[in-house]
Design goal:
2 domains, 301 residues, mainly alpha
Length: 301
């Protein structure tokens, strides 16, 4: 063994003197010295899968936008604040970023799920039909019948507006409007009391508007615009104007004034005020409908 080692050392010295490189270990020795483990493979990347080109299958359960209030159209239904009319955030956010009012999801679902929209549509058409009936008052032999029909339409409108609101403050307003409507039916079919009918009917208009503006949850619809305040002004102004007009008519008669002129004023003024009052109620209903259910009006204004 010692001689073989000396022979290897002498061979190496001779190779160095001759300028040759020392012999390297064999390949097997290389594998024993340098092979420390398997070499990892480079990572493989996969291209993202493309969506299918055909129509979605029935097994596709991906979320879709909720149906809008227009039948047959699929689009997300916008929701507006019931206090100021400002557009709310996506579904589930019930707080208005404009006025800070918070609304429960059930209230928003009732208003923007189609129920309240259908109610306002019915009320709007009934009010338009009632105003059309009132215009026929000036036709000979038709006036009392026109008032009678208009009062019946008003009574039915109160029922529609108060549906499912009996347990709230709107139920009290509807009760007062119903009593006033019953009195109006009696006055509409009587002679010589037509001016009083118009003032009683104006009170019905004010109470009906209060019913429409009062929600089941005891808050005012679009309360930012104070439409309910105008309703109460009409309610309290109607009897006061009736008393004032009656007193003026009695004073003019005692002073020997023209009876025809007094009768004309006593009839035309209450009739005009009645039309203005009911026209204001129709305008308020139309304004609520356009503000809440046609929110593009807010962007244009």
């Amino acid at each position: 063994m010692a001689e073989s080692r000396e022979d290897e050392t002498l061979a190496a010295l001779q190779a160095m003197r001759a300028g040759a490189a020392p012999s390297s270990p064999s390949s097997e020795e290389n594998e024993e010295v340098y092979a420390v483990g398997p070499v990892p493979e480079p990572p493989k990347f996969r291209a993202p899968a493309l969506p299918p080109s055909g129509p979605p299958s029935s097994a596709d359960h991906s979320p879709r936008p909720a149906k809008s209030r227009v039948i047959g159209e699929e689009a997300e239904s916008p929701r507006c604040c019931l206090h100021c009319g400002y557009l709310l955030g996506p579904s589930g956010a019930g707080r208005c970023s404009e006025c800070g009012k918070q609304f429960a999801e059930g209230v928003l679902e009732r208003w923007f799920g189609g129920y309240e929209q259908g109610r306002l549509e019915k009320v709007r058409w009934l009010l338009a039909a009632m105003l059309f009936a009132k215009v026929w008052f000036w036709m000979p032999h038709v006036g009392n019948y026109a008032n009678f029909i208009a009062t019946l339409i008003a009574f039915f409108t109160i029922y529609i507006a108060n549906e499912e609101k009996s347990d709230s403050l709107a139920g009290l307003y509807a009760l007062g409007a119903g009593v006033a409507s019953a009195l109006g039916v009696c006055l509409a079919t009587s002679r010589g009391v037509t001016p009083y009918y118009y003032f009683v009917d104006l009170a019905v208009a004010a109470l009906l508007l209060a019913v429409i503006l009062t929600d089941n949850e005891r808050f005012e619809i679009l309360g930012r615009f104070s439409m309910k305040t105008y309703a109460f002004v009409m309610l309290f102004a109607a009897p006061l104007l009736g008393v004032a007009l009656n007193a003026a008519s009695a004073a003019a008669t005692a002073a020997g004034g023209s009876t025809a002129l007094i009768d004309g004023i006593a009839l035309s003024v209450p009739f005009a005020m009645n039309l203005v009052g009911w026209g204001f109620v129709l305008w308020c209903v139309h304004f609520i409908y356009r503000t809440l259910f046609v929110p593009d009006v807010l962007d244009e204004s």
